Amino acid sequence: MADALTEHPITLPEKPALEGLEAKWGPVWEREGTYRFTPGRPRHEVFSIDTPPPTVSGSLHVGHVFSYTHTDVVARFQRMRGKSVFYPMGWDDNGLPTERRVQNFYGVRCDPSLPYDPSFQPPDKPGKAPISVSRPNFIELCERLTVEDEKAFEALWRHLGLSVDWSLTYATIGKRAQRVSQAAFLRLLRKGHAYQLEAPTLWDVDFRSAVAQAELEDREQPGAYHRLRFGKGDGSFVEIDTTRPELLPACVALVAHPDDARYQPLFDTVVMTPLFGVPVPVKAHPLADPEKGSGIAMICTFGDLTDVIWWRELALPVRAVIQTNGALKPVTFGSEAWPSHDAARAQGAYDQLANLSVTKARTKIVELLRESGDLIGEPRPITHPVKFYEKGDRPLEIVTSRQWFIRTMEFREALLARNRELEWHPEYMAHRLENWVNGLSGDWCVSRQRFFGVPFPVWYPIDQDGHIDYAHPLLPEEAQLPLDPSSDLPAGYGAEQRGQPGGFAGDPDVMDTWATSSLTPQLAAGWPDDPALFAQVFPMDVRPQAHDIIRTWLFTTVLRAELEHGSLPWTNAAISGWVLDPDRKKMSKSKGNVVTPMGLLEEHGSDGVRYWAASGRPGTDTAFDPAQMKVGRRLSIKLLNASRFALLQAEPRGPISEPLDRGMLTQLSRLVADATESLDAYDYARVLERTESFFWGFCDDYLEMVKARRYGDFGPEGAASANSAMLVALEALLRLFAPYLPFVTEEVWSWWRPGSVHRASWPTPAEVVAPIGGEDAGAVAVFKDAQTALADIRRIKAMEKRAVKSVIERAELPKTLEGLTPAARDFQAATHIRALTFGDVEAPRLIFAEEPVKAGESPA
RNA sequence: GGGCGGUUAGCUCAGUUGGUAGAGCUCCGGCUUUACACGCCGGCUGUCACAGGUUCGAGUCCUGUACCGCCCACCA
A638: which nucleotide lies closest, measuring CA to C1'? Predict the structure, then answer.
């Protein structure tokens, strides 16, 4: 048959091997532009990926290899289906990890009040005292350092075989990222979706910055209930439990449940705080839990988020004592804010607390309360969850400060509707976002009191008295972006007016890192400067990411796309699990169980490691398992050798007439149909499993049974049928495996097919059965019976410890296997059966040609 | 407290619309077989977490329970 497969010459290596394939093919792919995105194609011919940008100041670990492989499999599949794949790589160099690394590496500190110094060069080695540099200089240093990190990352990704288009890279710092972040922010501001407010805010006292709800985590901390008594004025007392006695001076009310009969008589009466003699009202509120403590609680400004709710809903005054550094600020009793029945005593007590940290103040006040007799009994130790900033070391406080917010609360319904529109893989992950949106308690606080990050592109006028007029911000034109209000000037002002009465002041804050990360689709897709590219790739097809950052990255990206574009940012969210160590714990550095990815790739081969990764099902945490990598490596080697066998003697060729050949191809076409459907649904693990399973059957049963015929034992027509079928199967199998094992499949492809397998078209069921004129279900039945009988014969030979090639003079098989008759010749050749009959027997009855191997055992 | 996922062989996991329990690894035994000893063939191993229910029939569907894990929560 003069088919297309013979047009290309076949060149086979003597001894094929996996070693060196990464080094061989990586440069070829780069040179040939195999993975290059083609601009200009219409949206429906594009598959675009919102690649997660790894944090470059960190290090890549096996978890990255795991999840990025999943994305790459999908990318390769879509490319083979004919899509132009937009597969960029981002570098996340924004945020605290980079800030710290740059500080330490160069020995510098950022001082946003300094002007930009274009000639600044950092010292070769960091000095003892940190050098202060301007924010623009600091960002330059960051970009310089991360370039080195990015090179190492890229080398690893290339070695792993990610089919990223390396001409499409972006960063989350630098001018472009700032321009996008600032432009998006200004648009929100002009639409009224961003606003500024002075309000109680979650505050990290070490970072001295506000943090957002999404950045919180609970940690179990030791604490203690302290029972305090408040005087009712008639000589009797009411007792409350608190874990934060140091906030007693910040107490503004007591609260109990409206239905709590014990405290109903006290509602709207006034009681006196111990030590300080501050009169506070007793209030009723449904959030008070009668079961907790004594059933009545003190409200402080602010001990926790419940205090904020009570304070707001009960319209209570503010008596803040925690400063931004976490110490208690000095206050004056007898003042308007701190009335007291005994101001001198109150001040005497408080002066011992002022300027102490929270923990020291707690110890001190317990001492004072014990002396005064207001502490009832001793503190009862408990363990309770306390809110922390996820990167912080001390519990969060709540501090009143001016912050920027992006509206989220009023868009909750819209976001829930978008969530229903989004296709999640696996589907159940949608609950995570739904729960998070339903649980939102406030708008998104996006400002951070850090130096490094994207500045808010905003200035404020300063009036003649030197007061900053926050209500009338000075905004730039979008064309001016990016800018830094600490060095750039608002229109109509001169540099000498900075900070002067009648002049202006730049907004000192920077944006939350998620304010930039939430724009990765826009950042990668050229928004707002390249509308053609943007239209070609946005909304993107898929966001791949892990499940732990659904509430942060995924949520904020959906929010930003809704607010800016009124659409989803992508149509699919593919969620990958974590890599767990064999003890089922998350792999982590601190546990010392992290393996370097490059070492793994070198030991098991990239294809071997990818095999392990791709066997982890979407959303499912997967055990780190080198044994699976060895299996993947073995599969790759098998692919080399089986391909070599198929190609070793590819002539003669001709019509595929033999039932085993036709049955095998029919099964393969069904596999192709299933694989295509599953990959469309992101179920890459299933496809690998099915394809692998077929392939082993192909090698162990099909190839073994057609071997003799293929070598010409039954004439040229039989050989031609086998050869042609094998090549059709091989060509399809290589393409099915290509997304998973890109190196070995490319190697084999290069022996006999032109171009790259990764640019070849994805196989279709019709194409596989075309040479046999469509599916041949009858041949499948023949193949299956032959396989069953083959296993039976092999079992008997193994049990009797006979050689595989030992000859069987006569065999009688159960009638249930009679279906193999059309392939009897192949079957008998593979099993070395001379005469074959079928009868009413349960199991095969075999008469071997020679005497049994074991002495004393009679022939069957 | 709310939500989600899981529980199948010693280990890691498949099991598509209900129809006689599977794979790989491990372990054991065998085989120099003209693609592969980086190989091949075979064997052992299960009250499908538990209790009910629906059904001719349940690993699969329904209800409940237990345990593991994750996410969330206003945690005095």
Answer: B36
